[in-house]
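Hi P.,

Sorry for the delay on this. The queue was packed all week, but I finally got your sequence through. Input first:
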Amino acid sequence: MDKIPLEEVLEKDLATAVDFEITLAALLSAILLISPGVSDVLQFPTIAVALLLLVLTLLRQMAIISQLSRTELILDKTSPPLVIATTYAVLYTTLWIGSVASNTLPIQPLTIALLISTLTPPILIALYEFFYRDFMLTVSIIMYNRYVDLDDSKFKNRVARRLGSWLGRSELSVDEQPPEIDRIRDVGESSLDDVNLGTRVGTRQELP
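Then the structure:
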């Protein structure tokens, strides 16, 4: 069973992904630099993270542009600190919004930050899927490729059952989806058939 090349199916290349990282890093860095005073303890690390985001995305962009660079090595080494810095920036941004909102609302900043952290991700995912229509396809392809690599049959079956669920939430109709997606759909449907068969067998065994 072969993997599905994400870049080819969705026509997304590495340069496009890095361009998105740069845009997101610039936005988060701007927020951090204009609001480093939410907490005296966090002021220095916040400024450091803002600069780190810009430096890391610059290094990744240079790795893509230069044809002689060790692109894969640079991208692999910069990915973990980029994820950590981005996570810090997002959490700090929610705390900053909570601090600003608490001036007019009778709610603690941390409570507001927790509410934003909880409610914002599903809302953003829903909006992204509605307007750009490729989030669920991307998740499905990534998890299908993971499914291909798995050896654990129990966990593999769980992933297979989820594949159909993710595809079902896509804003694209079946006719609009790339033909490679049929392989994912077949895996999800066969998994559901196995579950239904097991349920029927179990029911028959329970009958007197």
